[in-house]
Amino acid sequence: MIVQETEILFESRRNAALWPDVTVVIPLYNYQGFITETLNSVREQSLNSIGLVVVDDCSTDASASVVSEWLKRNNDRFERSLLAKNVRNAGLSVTRNTGTSLTNSPFLFFLDADNIIFRRCLDRLMEALKESSAVFAYSILDVFGARRGLMGTEVFNRERFKRGNYIDAMALIRREALIQLGGYHDLKFGWEDFDLWLRICENGDYGIQIPEILGRYRVHANSMLRTVTSESRNQERLKKMMLQRHSWLEL
């Protein structure tokens, strides 16, 4: 699993030396205008015992300072909280892996720095994983901003992946399984979450859907989906690469 060397900018422990069962991992890059709303949604979770790791990927705006000040005001909400900064810009996949390496919580929830989760999100996903042998749990998401709609409305189905991804990275994942698979692979133009779901399928594992709207997925002009990934040339490159990695697809 590829990770990046980091500098710790802030760290707080409420009680235990160990991380709690669930830690939220947030990769951060130039989202000073969104990150506070995202962090507030984590703070308001009904699940009492939570860890929080934010990894700044060398932002050129004030993102890291905004998070540092927020953590100073809210650090008593979390069993453990941590703000780290990559020593070099590493991209989304490596930054997620780096966040994974900074905590030993058995369950990790990956949340992008411009998205929002509703109050019962972590509670409901955790319940589902505890009651099943699934590797990850996800919910329906409300898509808002430059595009409106719903995401994650379909139950987990390996055959459905043949035509493309339909599950966002906003999911609660068993850390042990993620480590076994080598974490997120560093793909140049995106689709890292799609690639992870495919490798989970190929490993004989599965995810479980919670048929409730438990989060909000923001679409805006600066999101990776609307810049790098959606360019037609990059779309073709991604399809070719994914077919090479997963020959059973029908993209």
Automatic annotation (TrEMBL):
Gene3D superfamilies in UniProt: Spore Coat Polysaccharide Biosynthesis Protein SpsA, Chain A
Location of the Glycosyltransferase 2-like domain: 23-180
Pfam families to which the protein is assigned, alphabetical: Glycos_transf_2 (PF00535)
Domain of life: Bacteria
Protein name (Swiss-Prot/TrEMBL): Glycosyltransferase family 2 protein
Native organism: Chelativorans intermedius
